[in-house]
Specification:
- The chain is mainly α.
- The protein starts with a helix and ends with a helix.
- The N terminus is likely disordered.
- The protein is 69% helix and 0% strand.
- α6 runs antiparallel to α7 and α8 runs antiparallel to α9.
Length: 658
């Protein structure tokens, strides 16, 4: 039934209407998408259990009581248009329907601009299918000609709601329809190119882009930017950069946004040299860098560990009258903390505050964590005091970071007091908070308090997860409490948690330290039967190597080493030291281990494990055990391949230029 008749019937029957007529017309059986949109619009409905009196007519008759007629047009039409605009702005779809019903009944002229207003209202209400429905009824029901303007409006509503596949379907249907006779313009192409990029079908976006000249459409800056961004996100940087030259040849001048898209792509790839050249190109074209340009470059420099250059660029940014935002400062502070320079991060924070910016909770958490890890306990405490005095309300992450830092300092009792303060303020701790406290008590030989803490955690199932179990089991094994650790292990399995590498390795070490090597090997074999996410790592193997070599069972240790290589796990410095010590102390006559390490290097090269082989070579040189000539030859062949040499040269140039 048409929506006008439905609305009229509802008014005549005087029954309460829970949904505006325009929404009631949505047929749940028409399509899955329409069913979803109908359900999403339920927020506009009046609850069915409350009777609703019939609404007052939105268009009083006295407004149109005067005015001479001239054909089908009357002076009142402008009033109708104003009502449509107002109701669309308010999202009052019931009143909109009444206006449309009256205009149709009185044969008033409906213009496309009014429909565009309604389409936008549907977009704001997240009802794209109703916009599509009204678009199809424009001609037959309201005798209003559709043009590319209304087509673009509906297409934009669909895509803005994230329905990219639906948008492509709508585009193809309308453009291929001979009855509608609508040709796309630049805006149409910009929308579908965006949809194709969002869907991850960048090749389809390129096809649409190349199709534009065939339809006499000239791509604009937005077209190029959208396609460049899609290519960069797919890692196709070269194609994106080539579009910059193409757009300039076509007379389309890039903006700061265009350059920022490419600079961001190059920085994420780590190609700072070309990113810097793009900035130079940007300046030559008279396009000044903006905040986004600086933020992108600073972030790229921090990712590459070039903190000094990032700070210099920050100073240039401030000198250029640009105001750095929280992201800019946070990126530099995070980079400094990663390099173990949390004190310098504090200076940047001071610089930030002096210029009127406020640090967010992420910045404070990062600095607190860095200061504690570097052993700067007093500075971390002063920072925490500053946070409280500046009335920056700490959240769960900040409290958890401070508690973890206090436990690293060896003061779990004080950390427990902070936990109580945190809970008194209504801030809920998480698994990380409790894990830190457990680790703190266990490290300070206060295992009984750790057990009491664990019992407290078990009373609230929300705070016990696989990480908590791993931390607790590791600490108990380190303290020699294998029986209690086994009870926790069984409890973990009973609750459906899968032991991880840390849990298995902790137990294996506990057995080995307790002289129960067979139990450790048994658990190791069980570990091998688990999925790929729980395979032994080099730490697990080293624990077993050490235990076997101490017992003089070097042959068993060598067999285990073969298994380790077969599993794709490379030996490290600790592995080499364990075997070198065993070969010199347990064999008669003793060996210096040169033959052993030389053979190990060749086996790793044969398996194309160049990084692992390089580590062993480094150990040999440090211990004055020179490799054989044949081993050197293999090393040169693997390490000095043309691509690797070129990559090293490019890296050097990048360091010099940037």
């Amino acid at each position: 039934m048409p929506i006008i008749h439905t609305a009229a019937h509802a008014l005549k029957s005087k029954k309460p209407t829970n949904l505006p007529p325009l929404l009631r017309r949505c047929n749940p059986s028409s399509s899955p998408l329409r069913r979803r949109r109908c359900s999403s619009s339920s927020a506009l409905a009046v609850p069915t259990h409350e009777p609703v009196s019939p609404p007052e007519p939105p268009v009083p008759d006295h407004i149109f009581s005067s005015g001479a007629k001239s054909g089908t047009y009357t002076p009142g039409d402008s009033t109708f248009y104003s009502l449509i605009d107002n109701y669309a702005r308010l999202g009052d779809f019931g009143s909109l329907e009444e206006v449309l019903r009256r205009m149709k009944r009185e044969r008033r002229v409906l213009v496309e601009r009014s429909f565009v207003s309604i389409f936008k209202a549907y977009g704001r209400a997240r009802l794209p299918e109703l916009a599509v429905d009204l678009f199809h009824r424009m001609v037959d029901e309201f005798q209003c000609k559709r043009t590319v303007r209304s087509f673009n409006s509906v297409l934009n509503v669909i895509i803005q709601n994230g329905l990219y596949h639906r948008g492509m379907e709508f585009y193809s249907y309308v453009i291929s329809s001979s009855q509608m006779n609508i040709s796309p313009n630049v805006l149409s192409y910009n929308l579908v190119v965006k949809a194709a990029c969002k869907m991850g079908t960048v090749d389809r976006a390129v096809e649409l882009f190349r199709e534009m000249p065939l339809r006499s459409c000239v791509p604009d800056v937005f077209t190029y930017c959208t396609l460049m961004d899609g290519l960069c996100k797919e890692g196709r940087i070269e194609e994106a950069v080539s579009l910059l030259d193409e757009m300039q040849m076509e007379g389309c001048f890039p903006t700061a946004v265009t350059y920022n898209v490419l600079i961001n792509g190059l920085c994420k790839k780590g190609d700072l040299k070309r990113a810097a050249k793009l900035v130079d190109n940007m300046l030559l074209k008279g396009c000044a860098p903006n905040e986004v340009t600086y933020n992108t470059l600073i972030h790229g420099l921090c990712l590459r560990g070039k903190l000094e250059k990032a700070v210099d660029l920050l100073n240039r940014m401030v000198a250029s009258k640009f105001v750095p935002n929280d992201v800019t400062y946070g990126t530099i502070i995070n980079g400094l903390v990663r390099l173990g320079r949390a004190i310098d991060g504090l200076q940047v924070l001071k610089f930030m505050v002096e210029r009127g910016s406020r640090a967010n909770q992420y910045v404070y958490s990062t600095l607190l964590s860095g200061l504690f890890k570097e052993g700067k306990f007093q500075e971390a405490r002063r920072l925490w005091q500053d946070i409280i005095e500046e009335r920056c309300e700490p959240n769960t992450v900040m409290y958890s970071t401070f508690i973890d830092g206090l436990c690293q300092e060896g003061k779990p009792e004080e950390a427990k007091e902070i936990l109580l303060e945190m809970m008194n303020k209504g801030i809920a701790p998480n698994a990380f908070t409790y894990s830190s406290l457990l680790r703190g008590f266990l490290r300070t030989d206060k295992s009984e308090k750790a057990i009491l803490m664990w019992e407290e955690m078990e009373n609230n199932n929300d705070f016990t997860n696989a990480v908590c179990y791993s931390v607790f089991i590791h600490g108990l094994c380190e303290n020699g409490k294998l029986e209690k650790a086994m009870m926790v292990w069984k409890n973990m399995l009973a609750r459906g948690f899968q032991p991880d590498v840390v849990s298995y390795t902790s137990f294996i070490k506990g057995f080995c330290d307790n002289g129960e090597l067979k139990e450790g090997l048994k658990l190791f074999n069980e570990m091998l039967c688990q999925g790929p996410s729980c395979q032994p790592d080099v730490i697990t193997y080293n624990i077993l190597f050490n235990a076997l070599c101490k017992q003089g069972d070097i042959s068993h240790a060598l067999n285990l080493l073969n298994s380790m290589l077969h599993q794709g796990c490379d030996p490290d410095l600790c592995t080499c030291n364990i075997f070198l010590k065993a070969l010199s102390e347990k064999l008669n006559p003793p060996q210096d281990g040169r033959e052993f390490l030389d053979e190990l290097v060749l086996r790793l090269f044969k398996r194309q494990r160049v990084v692992g082989a390089s580590r062993i070579l480094e150990v040999m040189l440090q211990k004055y055990l020179p490799p054989k000539a044949f081993t050197w030859e293999k090393a040169v062949q693997q390490l000095c391949k043309p691509k690797k040499v070129q990559a090293a040269i490019d890296s050097c140039w990048n360091d010099l230029v940037c």
